[in-house]
Design goal:
2-keto-3-deoxygluconate:proton symporter activity; transport; Na+/H+ antiporter like fold; cell membrane
Length: 327
């Protein structure tokens, strides 16, 4: 059987196929792989460890002379994602109806879903289509995990003030450290760099499967049409914005598009914010299910959208090489 060749013919196949298979298992047979020991550790709970190892392997490929480029790309992604998501959140607040909803969407759900991104999905897509410097940009994207940037947006809108304790510098360092360890190893020893190089691509289908075991398709039904729309907005608005910003800067535009997702941890953001400000309590339930629907929708749709963009670029003569896209 030509499994690898078949997966490579599917846009984003190394990532999206294992993820969808796992999501189906988690939806219809959630306890099948939750049997403890090594099986559950690898296939269900392994995403964080596998992604950390992926980042270490990626870090080993980075020359210290080019790390500044990675930081610049990460900052650009972070700012683009936040500005677009916050702008749509502001629109939702300005044009919300008497029930506090904008076309059925809770404004707080819009901000939470569109400013937060799925780091695992980003790493998988950029691991397939980006360069070493592109992958290292993920280190800065840890800043959009959790409710911090949602709080910043709400505070700017005058909806609420800053709340201490929702962002920890330790959390940011904990994401950055595996990359730094890899960089040190790779820059001290070229043979270590070569040894760790194969890990970058080999780990993708394994942590994609583990990520899929955290997805339940019922979240789409619970979130309703509004939740699906929120997922569509996240993919096609924030992803497309990132694509064109990177293209304008003459960077690999696929890396910009890879930010068009909602992370699973964003589901908890409405409840966290309501705990800090009781005025949001009335929309917590609907906002939570809408964000959950966006998580599932973007996890399925973004790899497909990125695959479409890749084919479009290839038809224009672009080639995906180790240093990024070239003519």
């Amino acid at each position: 059987m030509k499994i690898k060749e078949t997966l490579e013919r599917i846009p984003g196949g190394m990532m999206v196929v294992p993820l969808l298979i796992a999501a189906l298992l988690n939806t219809f047979a959630p306890n099948l792989l939750r049997i403890g020991n090594f099986t559950e550790a690898l296939f269900v709970n392994g995403s964080s460890t596998l992604i950390a190892l992926f980042l270490l392997c990626t870090g080993a490929q980075i020359n210290v002379k080019s790390f500044g480029v990675s930081v610049g790309k990460g900052a650009t992604l972070l700012i683009t994602k936040w500005v677009v998501g916050a702008a749509f959140g502001l629109l939702a607040y300005l044009f919300a109806g008497d029930n506090g909803l904008w076309f059925g969407l809770a404004p707080i759900a819009v901000i939470a879903a569109m400013t937060n991104s799925n780091g695992g999905l980003f790493v998988a897509l950029v691991g397939q289509y980006g360069s070493k410097e592109d992958r290292a940009a993920y280190s800065l994207l840890a800043l959009n995990d959790g409710p911090f940037l949602t709080m910043v947006a709400l505070s700017i809108f005058g909806a609420m003030g800053f709340v201490d304790g929702l962002f920890s510098i330790t959390s940011f360092i904990s994401v950055l450290l595996p990359i730094i360890v890899g960089m040190v190893l790779g820059n001290l020893d070229d043979k270590m760099r070569d040894f760790l190089d194969s890990g970058s691509s080999m780990l993708i289908p394994f942590f994609a499967f583990s990520l899929g075991m955290g997805i339940n398709f019922s979240a789409i039904l619970e979130g309703g049409l509004a939740g699906i729309i929120l997922g569509l907005l996240t993919v096609f608005v924030t992803g497309t914005a990132g694509y064109y910003v990177f293209k304008l800067l003459k960077w690999n535009p696929i890396v910009g598009a890879a930010e068009g997702s909602t992370a699973g941890n964003a589901v908890a953001t409405p409840a966290v914010i309501a705990a800090a400000n009781a005025s949001f309590a009335s929309v917590v339930d609907i906002a939570t299910v809408q964000v959950a629907a966006s998580v599932v929708t973007t996890a399925i749709l973004l790899p497909i959208y990125v695959g479409f963009l890749v084919k479009r670029l290839e038809k224009k003569g672009y080639k995906f090489e180790e240093q990024g896209i070239k003519m």
